[in-house]
Write the structure tokens for this entry.
Amino acid sequence: MPGKVRDTGDGLFHRVEELIEVAMLLPRNMSDQEVEGLLRFLPPDTSRSMRALLSPRFREVSLDFIGMVGGWIGEARRAREEGRKVVLVPFNFPPEVIYLFKNAVPLTSEVLTTLGVAVLEGQGERYWDYAMGLGIPDFLCSSSTIELGSVLTGRDFEPDIIVQSAPGACDANSKIHEFVSLHMGIPQVILEKPTETGPRGRELHRRYFLAFLRRLEEMIGEELDEGRMRRVLEEANRAAELYYELYDLRKFSPCPVPNIFSIFTYGTRFTRWGRPEGTEMMRRMVELSKRRLEAGEYPAPEEVARCMWLYIGYYFDFLGFFNWMEERGITYLNDVLSLCQPRFVDTSSRESMLEGLAETCFEYPMTRQMGASSMSLAWIEDMCGFIRDLRADCAVYSGHHACKQTWSVINQVRREIMKRTGAPVLCLQGDSWIRRMTPTSVLQEEIQSFVDGVVRRRRARGGRGA
């Protein structure tokens, strides 16, 4: 039955929730020796991720992030007994839209997948394998298929409603959500985005969005309240102010913002935007980054590379990816997901709020680039702008195997970025959520070779990427 948690204990949602509940009990004043003792009792995959998160450089903020995510998951689990609907949303849909409703709670499938990959022994691969066993093609994206593969077992958390807003921007995401909706009998509501980015396309999208909200009102059984809308969107505006403050801190060299804050940023944007918990999480990241800037703290002798990630990163090994780069002076400035560029919504009237939310959906990360009238042009213009603004001296494209549309234009994007900014571009292959396609050691070798053989040499000659 939709909305019911089947307590068999082997679903991704259930297993992640149990581990995070334990992690939320960790004291904030743990010594390094106590952390080391704790890590020895954990399974290897869980221990490796927790070692990354509990680095002394940002341990306090990691614990804040764990607490925020734990509260988000716990709210979804309690929703049914409180008479509320759980709405499963994709990564490119703003959760604050769901928070407009008193009787609804958002869950983001890709965030659940990432949590499973990060904290579970076996990294969620069993759920991917189950989905493949059903005959689902392996060219769909693991980011949503791992979590939804768990739902398809019939032994895990099932949402009441599925929102789909990825057609045209991420068709792999759209098809697996559609399949789960049909296979499990879970109602789905779709928000389409026209590829036309001019006034005509935006007006059409606004109509789609208003119709989408009316459908949600029917499914949730609640009409939108203007006062609640204003409270949610004012909170979202406060989080947006902190987002841009954190963005500006990344302009300093060496960068005072820890690499892992990139995933914390969109982990917050995709779960708690519009809620005080999300605003507080952004504030904590800003405060720590400011302290590091003032103290001149940086984990490497020097910053040797400022990397803009053109698409997404890798999430199956925080320690060997985010931490490893930072400790070698390789800054992970941002990727297309953390560059969410949140809009400030005018809260003066109901109409202005609805207009602002429609624009937020229209300009959401990946929807903005991959769902544009010209994907390559929108992608090139955005990335070149960010490379210049953040003073990146190189760029990296991490090509997930499911992202056929980005692979089709990456050579053109790469040439244009190099021509317009001078920044060399490294192209990597691999599954961002499944380690067995491209191991961490291979990724590290390619990144290090690129930095040593290209970026360092350019710096030695006095050149910069931008």
In short: Strands lie at 85-89, 104-108, 161-164, 188-190, 305-309, 330-334, 394-399, 425-429. The chain has 20 helices and eight strands. Residues 226-249 form the longest helix (24 residues). Confidence is low (pLDDT under 50) at residues 1-7.
